[in-house]
Amino acid sequence: MDAKNDHNRDFRDAIRGAAEAVFRSYIEDGSITTTGKSGTEIVDEYATLIDKLIDTSELDVMEFHTSIDHRDILLERARVEAEHGHDQLAITLYSTWIEHSVNGLLALAMERQGRSKQVVTPLLRELRIPTKITALWELVGLPALREGSVRVLDQALNFRNAFVHYKWSATSDQEHRTHTERLHAIVPEIERVVSEFMDIESAAIWDGRKAEIMECYRSVLDAHEKKHGPITPEKLNLLLSRENT
Q: How many domains does the chain have?
């Protein structure tokens, strides 16, 4: 019984996570706008769109395509490494988080402009980060980063690249000390850049209302579970039906 309960709990958590990811995607790609709408109105609009999708689809062949967001674990590990004084690993993980965020924000902004995947993918693949966060950033209408943040990010990426593509070059003790001091000093600065990116994403994609809107959607899932019990494989069809919320 315990094994089945654990399985159902894991299934429930996975399905709720997937449901939230689909809901977020409708906000993030601009399918649902948030300006001038209450959280309830936004959730109702989403439910209407899903109803139409279900009405025009066969449930057994419906297929959702999602991207995996690795940023939570990257940021968590970066902060752990920083706390333990492993500055090089911390900067490598912070820089990777930044790169994921840059590409994600640009992809969403271009998708909202109606750009096709054939346009978006080559730009993200071919352009360097400094160009993305300045010229391309402005072209897609994202709020500008502070000049100091661009400088810090450039330094962090240089540290990350030197570590990832390590050349085994010999250095003097003084050069090593200088490198170590610069690396240590940039860790708190890159944390501030992370906060700036979070603020930009919140403002540009969610009108600063992500927590409020997600809480409203989660309350719908909570009401569904209160009425029908925890989500299990046998009850999955109920989650897709608005009639049963």
A: 2
Instruction: Record the tokens describing residue 210, joined without a space.
Output: 């992500």
The CATH number linked to 113 is 1.20.120
Residue type, 143: P
pLDDT at 84: 97
105 and 85 part of one domain: yes
Q: Is the pLDDT of residue 77 over 50?
A: yes
Q: What is the pLDDT of residue 65?
A: 64
Q: Are residues 55 and 170 in the same domain?
A: no
Same domain, 223 and 149: no
Task: Output the average pLDDT for the chain.
Answer: 86
Say what the pLDDT of residue 206 is.
93
Q: Look up residue 155 and give its two tokens.
A: 């330094």
Whether 22 and 113 map to the same domain: the answer is: no
Asked if pLDDT for residue 227 goes beyond 90, the answer is no
Per the structure, the complete domain to which residue 218 belongs is given by: 2-65+209-244
16: CB partners within 8 A, 6+ apart: 221, 231
Of 71 and 234, more confident: 71
Reply yes or no on whether the pLDDT at 40 is more than 50: yes
CA distances from 92 to 81, 146, 154 (A): 10, 21, 13
